[in-house]
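stage 2 :: seqdesign
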């Protein structure tokens, strides 16, 4: 096979006039229409001078066309680099610099804002919006609807996904064709996906969950998706009767449970509900079962590794656990000091090895070396333990990370911004419980002596630099930060102090 990822996900559907995407407005995209659009995009990109291995940065709204761009990149041997639509121009500028992408595809409304950045870096800009309009689509209309697939091997890079870091600098996780394909194959079997499945897809397609887990599995199994622009309750409820399965972050499930239209009858025909990207509270699991009779299947993954563990399809789906290592994936819990494996029921750091594990961080050998051991085990930064029955429990994180509505937020990035503001001596950013997002961001600020930092001006500064989901939802002033004997800020004390800010005790 000359391009395994393309052939297994896309190519094998060539000529199929069967539905692939069901849209909210009642329209349907067949596999054939989808592949033709992808082929046209591939022509445009290659004619613009891109060569196999080049990165293509993409920051556009979710749509069938946006997904076709993923297929186009795979077919043309380009490295797909999707970016959260919430990222600011400042953030995007970093990703372009770091990745060396010579092409960016953005929404037409963003072209002017991006111009100073793209002109300075001599980057080629294409536009594409959620309705399939923009200069990329316009050029594509004149192109043939087939494209000769560019040969690639399993070890060639297929995608870069950026993930933030504890130092405040995002890292490009390099994923090969086989990283993606091996995981998709495992999950199709484990979760029993077939060509009869219609996945209710309301996740964004710029992260592992919506792009690789949801989409790759559906394509590999030959099924279809009810493809929603985003998680919007009315649409989810309206489209559920069409679907057989759904994947979501815990916020999806708590929002559904808060809506009385989400009944046992509405969910009765569903085969499977899967949750991941953030901890699903056992309470949500229990409420969901009481309402619908379904036990949500929780699994655990990461940008760097795709999916690592899953509760079983048959057998007990244990609330508060992320199940067993997937076939072909090794998971161990180790002592952070010695790296030795720990016995069951003992908390340690979670390490993962398998064909799913990425190749390293783009041009960051030191960071790669610190997290990816020479023997292939990746140190996830999550803390957990195996119970007596072999289920993995995630009990915390060894990395300073906040997960809000399934988005990862690294406090350091926000602290650097807060520290740079007038009147701020230092700051600590923490995650506190939040009913909708699970956790939300709070900035704790120590003013310089006699200074009175302007909190509104600080919030404004956050707006220009940081994506909205990273903004502190509350800024509080304190006299000093609690520190241990080593001088390290004790965030656990701050988290305890501010735990009732959004969820009153
Ligand atoms: C949106 N906002 C968020 C937010 N999402 N703020 C904090 N955290 C989030 N996750 C902002 C909006 O910009 C808006 O700002 C305000 O919060 C309220 O918006 P909303 O309309 O309520 O939010 P909504 O658009 O409905 O989005 C919420 C969400 C979405 C949960 C549906 O964030 C989402 O789809 N999350 C999924 C993330 C995901 O796919 N993670 C997978 C990562 S991969 P304002 O200005 O109006 O106040 C991974 C690996 C693995 O982790 O294991 O899967
Ligand atoms: P990301 O870097 O965005 O891919 O997020 C990966 C992180 O999300 C993991 O390291 C975990 O901390 C967290 N995560 C993913 N799935 C789960 C889950 N089911 N339960 C708890 N945390 C999870």
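stage 2 :: out
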């Amino acid at each position: 096979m000359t391009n395994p990822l393309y052939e297994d996900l896309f190519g094998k559907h060539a000529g199929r006039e069967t539905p692939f995407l069901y849209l909210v407005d009642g329209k349907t995209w067949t596999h054939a229409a989808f592949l033709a659009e992808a082929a046209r995009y591939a022509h445009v990109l290659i004619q613009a001078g891109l060569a196999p291995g080049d990165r293509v940065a993409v920051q556009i709204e979710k749509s069938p066309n946006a997904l076709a761009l993923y297929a186009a990149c795979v077919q043309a041997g380009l490295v797909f680099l999707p970016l959260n639509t919430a990222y600011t121009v400042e953030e995007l500028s970093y990703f372009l610099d770091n990745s060396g992408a010579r092409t960016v595809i953005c929404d037409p409304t963003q072209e002017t804002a991006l111009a100073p950045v793209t002109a300075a870096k001599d980057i080629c800009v294409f536009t594409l919006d959620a309705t399939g309009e923009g200069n990329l689509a316009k050029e594509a209309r004149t192109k043939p609807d087939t494209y000769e697939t560019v040969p690639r091997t399993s070890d060639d890079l297929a995608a870069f996904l950026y993930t933030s870091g504890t130092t405040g600098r995002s890292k490009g996780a390099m994923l090969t064709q086989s990283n993606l394909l091996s995981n998709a194959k495992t999950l199709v079997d484990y979760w029993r996906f077939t060509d009869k499945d219609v996945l209710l897809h309301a996740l964004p397609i710029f992260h592992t969950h919506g792009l690789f887990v949801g989409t790759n599995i559906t394509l590999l199994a030959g099924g279809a998706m009810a493809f929603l622009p985003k998680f919007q309750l009315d649409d989810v409820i309206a489209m559920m009767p069409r679907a057989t399965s759904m994947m979501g972050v815990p916020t999806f499930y708590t929002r559904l449970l808060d809506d009385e239209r989400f009944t046992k009858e509405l969910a009765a025909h569903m085969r499977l509900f899967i949750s991941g990207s953030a901890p699903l509270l056992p309470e949500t699991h229990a409420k969901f079962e009481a309402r619908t009779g379904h036990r949500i299947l929780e699994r655990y993954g990461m940008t760097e590794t795709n999916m690592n563990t899953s509760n079983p399809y048959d057998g007990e789906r244990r609330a508060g656990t992320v199940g067993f290592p997937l076939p072909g994936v090794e998971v161990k819990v180790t002592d952070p000091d010695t790296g030795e494996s720990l016995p069951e029921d003992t908390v340690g750091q979670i390490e993962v090895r398998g064909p799913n594990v990425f190749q390293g961080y783009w041009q960051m050998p030191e960071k790669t070396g610190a997290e990816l051991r020479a023997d292939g085990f990746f140190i996830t930064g999550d803390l957990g333990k195996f119970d007596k029955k072999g289920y993995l429990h995630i009990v915390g994180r060894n990395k300073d990370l906040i997960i809000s509505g399934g988005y990862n937020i690294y406090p350091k990035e926000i602290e650097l911004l807060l520290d740079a503001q007038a009147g701020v001596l230092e700051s600590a950013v923490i995650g506190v419980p939040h009913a909708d997002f699970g956790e939300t961001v709070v900035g704790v600020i120590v003013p310089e002596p006699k200074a009175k930092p302007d909190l509104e001006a600080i919030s404004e500064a956050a707006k220009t630099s940081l994506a909205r989901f990273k903004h502190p939802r509350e800024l509080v002033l304190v006299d000093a930060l609690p520190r241990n004997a080593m001088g390290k800020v004790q965030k656990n004390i701050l988290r305890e102090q501010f735990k009732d800010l959004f969820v009153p005790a």
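stage 3 :: structure notes
- Residues 163, 208, 276-279, 298, 300-303, 322, 380, 382, 394, 397, 403, 408 surround adenosine monophosphate (ligand 2) (CB under 6 Å).
- DSSP finds 16 helices and 24 strands in the chain.
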